[in-house]
Input
Amino acid sequence: MEVAESWAVIEHWISRNAVAEQLPSGASVVEMDELQEDMPVHIPQDLRSSLRRHNGTGETEIIPPAFTLWGTRRILSEYVSEPFQSERVYIPIGSMGPNVLSVDSRSDRLARYDPHYGFYAREEEVFSSSFGDILAAVATAISGSSSTLHVSPNEAWRATKGVGHAEGYLVWEDS
Output
């Protein structure tokens, strides 16, 4: 599934089930050109396509369990100030608390960074794939009857509408 198609499915689900969510509009061509000019590494096409569709996700926790995606300005700011990488090949694209979701500029593979444990991977098939693959997995999960994304054999997250103070928002629940 292409990034634009994934976003279309996600947007449709949000418009029907999480009406309080507000996804930002896409980055302009100028913003994308400025980001690439200021980044000494190649920005993978899937990330470019996503930023052109939505310049981040604002407060919407689009990738389970609760990762938001950043816009071009925050990406550049975080890249410049990252204390954790010496090779400067990882592009930080979002966060869940202190955990950072990054894309390897060489391979378009996702990486997760925890300030306590460094870069890590568990048996998470979804998070060892590309950025486009994670968006496709989210789109497939929320468009299915169970709205469940299987991260690993032992971990799954279900997209819900949220209840109580979270009503109208996309909430990923441990399934």
Summary: The two ends are 24 Å apart (CA to CA). The longest helix spans residues 3-17. The helical segments are 3-17, 29-38, 45-53, 72-81, 131-143. The mean pLDDT is 88.
